[in-house]
Amino acid sequence: MIVLTGNSLTLKEMSNILFNYEKVTASDDSWKRVEESRKAVEQIVKENRVVYGITTGFGKFSDVLINPKDVEALQLNLIHSHACGVGDPFPELVSRAMLVLRANALLKGFSGVRKVVIEQLLKFVNTGIHPVIPQQGSLGASGDLAPLSHLVLPLLGEGEVFYKGNRTNALEAMTTEGIFPITLTAKEGLALINGTQAMTAMGVLTYLEAEKLAYQSEAIAAMTIEGLKGIIDAFDEDVHIVRGYPEQITVAKRMRGLLEGSKLTTKQGEIRVQDAYSLRCIPQVHGATWQTLNYVKEKLEIEMNAATDNPLIFDGGKKVISGGNFHGQPIALAMDFLGIAIAELANISERRIERLVNPQLNDLPPFLSPEPGLQSGAMIMQYCAASLVSENKTLAHPASVDSIPSSANQEDHVSMGTIGSRHAYQIVSNTRRVLAIESICAMQAVEIRGADGMAPATKSVLEEGRKRIPFIEKDRVFSNDIVEAENWMRNAFSIDEIKKFEKGAIVEERV
């Protein structure tokens, strides 16, 4: 059971909630803060004070006063009118993450919602009822208004949900679990949808998958080095210490660990003096991606524990401030950066694939074919990889550099962070496919060389891969192999063996 406090949620805990379906609850202290904040809202309504979103309309309608008897209608109208998302739904895990993140933000006690609202979010998480939320329609400022409105609908007994593997009517799933719809009162609709939880939830899932992919890319690259009789000297720690980037140093250490004991690697001058950049510069390129991952992790963990709605309530209601914490710029930039960094893992992987299949660049059978000429072997798999990296280049164009005014120019600068997070996720998916192709080619190459000469670490990767993707003895429908390799990487490719090599990595420059 993960205890939400509003302040301490980590990516590791989110991983357990998403992939292990860990249940969630709230801390006692957070409930006290929620109750105090709610009393402040009720006092504002009672005194008929002019406070944005509580006794006024929204956006450009912020100067329209609302009669106290209409506060419930105001909140329901807000949800209905803002639930205008379009396109395919977010992955179900993103919906689950949105529920958790919205609950965690409200538990900070600056939003003024009732306890029952947050309890409803937690019930949905713990029973596996996940709202169907269209991916398109958010500008990433004023909150993820459209996606979060679709998140709220099922709390009210409306809309659709994913439940036990099916897409179904929300009220039916709720009835099965004994959950009753709630009615929103003053400020609650606004508090639920004024936030960055769509882009952040998409960012959390993207980061968790990207981190795993980054580790896997090193093991696959190590097999490629063996398949090409790569030069091990380039990973010598002295080379990387004198540059000074900790992530580069650590990648080089992991590469040395993965290749330790290999009889398929070479030393400088044995076959050639130096390798191409796609082999020699793995620590520099992959290390830079790890720098980005570390940056993104920091920003996500801040945002996961942030109060992002508007207005925010302080000092028991004495201070109610309309600010801009709903603006997604920090996550927008982080997601664009993440997409670019992961696209580079695909770019360098595709170049390694080319070196594995191109007979002008190696001494292996052309295109790793079992019968060159009659059988094409891996020729078109490289085409596929090239297509994916080219697609990534268009997806990596930063979404955050765009803005378009909305709400009659009241909301005149927006982040487009949700678009950035969606594109980053697509880039991760494409990159996994490119690395799946590299794994197929690398396994073929090392077995042509002789698997007995492999390092123990890479050989264990080969053995796991061969349980799913057989040696290419003749041409077959390789699309099936790519899907199999992709599923292996997503679900069964362990990174524990890779991670163990980073322990004790030297990060200080030698004197």
TrEMBL record:
It is found in: Cytoplasm. Its EC number is 4.3.1.3. It catalyses: L-histidine = trans-urocanate + NH4(+). One of its GO terms (molecular function) is histidine ammonia-lyase activity. GO terms for biological process: L-histidine catabolic process to glutamate and formamide; L-histidine catabolic process to glutamate and formate. Transmembrane segments: none annotated. GO terms for cellular component: cytoplasm. Pfam families: Lyase_aromatic. InterPro entries: Aromatic_Lyase (IPR001106), Fumarase/histidase_N (IPR024083), HutH (IPR005921), L-Aspartase-like (IPR008948), Phe/His_NH3-lyase_AS (IPR022313). The modification 2,3-didehydroalanine (Ser) is found at S142. Keywords: Cytoplasm, Histidine metabolism, Lyase. Pathway: Amino-acid degradation; L-histidine degradation into L-glutamate; N-formimidoyl-L-glutamate from L-histidine: step 1/3. Contains an active site 4-methylidene-imidazol-5-one (MIO), which is formed autocatalytically by cyclization and dehydration of residues Ala-Ser-Gly. There is a cross-link at A141-G143 (5-imidazolinone (Ala-Gly)). NCBIfam families: hutH, PRK09367.1. Belongs to the PAL/histidase family. This is Histidine ammonia-lyase. It comes from Priestia filamentosa. The lineage of its organism: Bacteria, Bacillati, Bacillota, Bacilli, Bacillales.
